[in-house]
TrEMBL record:
<dbReference type="GO" id="GO:0097367">
    <property type="term" value="F:carbohydrate derivative binding"/>
</dbReference>
<feature type="domain" description="SIS">
    <location>
        <begin position="38"/>
        <end position="196"/>
    </location>
</feature>
<dbReference type="InterPro" id="IPR046348">
    <property type="entry name" value="SIS_dom_sf"/>
</dbReference>
<dbReference type="Pfam" id="PF13580">
    <property type="entry name" value="SIS_2"/>
</dbReference>
<keyword id="KW-0413">Isomerase</keyword>
<dbReference type="GO" id="GO:0016853">
    <property type="term" value="F:isomerase activity"/>
</dbReference>
<dbReference type="InterPro" id="IPR001347">
    <property type="entry name" value="SIS_dom"/>
</dbReference>
<dbReference type="GO" id="GO:1901135">
    <property type="term" value="P:carbohydrate derivative metabolic process"/>
</dbReference>
<dbReference type="InterPro" id="IPR035461">
    <property type="entry name" value="GmhA/DiaA"/>
</dbReference>
<dbReference type="InterPro" id="IPR050099">
    <property type="entry name" value="SIS_GmhA/DiaA_subfam"/>
</dbReference>
<protein>
    <submittedName>
        <fullName>Phosphoheptose isomerase</fullName>
    </submittedName>
</protein>
Length: 198
């Protein structure tokens, strides 16, 4: 009997990521449209509220850092809040109202008509994100979902959704790629508009 085949976890992971990224490319037009719309709204003084759980929370903070700080080029700061990073609010709301309300209550406090509520989830089924999406719609904000494979409940309750194919770790990695793609479009539009107005 021969020796068992050697498992190569690193190459196996990277091959899986490559397949997930290839499937994510199907959403290129939607991601570009999000970058265009994000630039239009934030330049009008509106804001984006972003939230996620676990690894998706880290990606939510990553996006807001790129918008408040900068992605690549020097440009003005834009209003973006990662709701999961508001630790005192998250823990107080979770303690007083339950974990399902930790984002929805913040959305009710901060979201205004014309803002964007962007929710990140690998499962697309987290109750606290579903509640946040509904709160965003009631506030008159646009609701976007960046999720794992669809169809899923979050994609169905939001106005627009990009559903990334693959297992949870690869979905999280593709979330970052999607965020950077949106930021690249956002920056290109902002820099072009700033150049025209100067």
């Amino acid at each position: 009997m021969g020796a068992p085949a050697r498992v190569d976890p690193v190459r196996d992971h990277l091959r899986g990521l490559g397949a997930a990224l290839a499937s994510a490319e199907r959403h290129a037009a939607q991601l570009e449209a999000w970058g265009v719309e994000l630039a239009a709204r934030l330049r009008r003084g509106q804001r984006v509220l972003v939230a996620g759980n676990g690894g998706s929370a880290a990606e939510a903070q990553h996006l807001t850092a790129e918008l408040v700080g900068r992605y690549r080029e020097e440009r003005p700061a834009y209003s973006a809040i990662a709701l999961n990073a508001e630790t005192s609010s998250v823990t107080a709301i979770g303690n007083d109202y339950g974990f399902d309300e930790v984002f929805a209550r913040q959305v009710r406090a901060h979201a205004r008509a014309g803002d964007i509520v962007l929710l990140l989830s690998t499962s697309g089924a987290s109750p606290n994100l579903l509640h946040a999406a509904r709160a965003g719609r009631l506030a008159g904000a646009a609701t976007w979902a960046l999720t794992g494979p669809g169809p899923n409940p979050l994609a169905e309750v939001c106005d627009e959704a990009v559903c990334l194919d693959g297992p949870s770790p690869h979905v999280q990695e593709c979330q970052l790629a999607a965020i950077h793609a949106v930021c690249r479009v956002f920056d290109a539009i902002v820099m072009d508009e700033e150049g025209r107005s100067s």
